[in-house]
Amino acid sequence: MKTILNRYFRWFLPEVTLPQSLLLLLLRLYWGWAFFLTGKGKLANLQMPTEFFQSLRIPFPHEQAILAGTTECFGGLLLLAGLFGRLISIPLAILLTVAYLTADLDKVKMILSDPDKFLAADEFLFLFVVVLVLTFGPGKFSIDWLIKRKVTPTQSISV
Asked: Distance between CA atoms of 65 and 51, rounded to whole angstroms?
């Protein structure tokens, strides 16, 4: 069991510097909370996202609203805590990519001709943060890093 955890943490939590960890902490706290509030809002009033998804002709709009809200709500909490940061970044990135391609397809098509519209889309900053966490991990100020310290040999952890 410990070998599996060692492999997991070696891949999902590479070494990062203190400035990187501070930046990742700030990003995770702000955007994790934003994801949580967005997902909570969807789950609290499922009729609104369901109707919006129907207008976009997304199949199974009610179920998709539940899935999106749950992913954002619980994914935001995990991101906020830095628990399974890289793993939760994958479904969040998929969710945001689908949102871009369905709700803001016109902005995606203008990525080269008018990049400001692409960058101004609501999904962009969320997606940008998720890609950063997916790329660099949650950083040293995370539950993942604390667990890594417990399960990996001490010589492999640098400060």
From this structure: 9
In the numeric block, which tokens belong to residue 98?
């689908």
**3 state DSSP class of 46:** coil
Nearest CA to 143 among 102, 83, 92?
83
Q: Please, are residues 34 and 126 in contact by the beta-carbon 8 Å criterion?
A: yes
What tens digit of pLDDT does each residue of 40-58 get?
999 999 999 999 999 999 9
Q: 150 pLDDT band (50/70/90 cuts)?
A: confident
How far out from the chain centre does Cα 131 lie?
7
Q: Tally the residues of the chain.
A: 159
| H or E, element range at 87 | helix 85-103
Q: Could you tell me if 31 and 54 are in contact, meaning their C-beta atoms sit under 8 angstroms apart?
A: no
pLDDT tens column, 91-126: 999 999 999 999 888 998 888 898 898 898 888 999
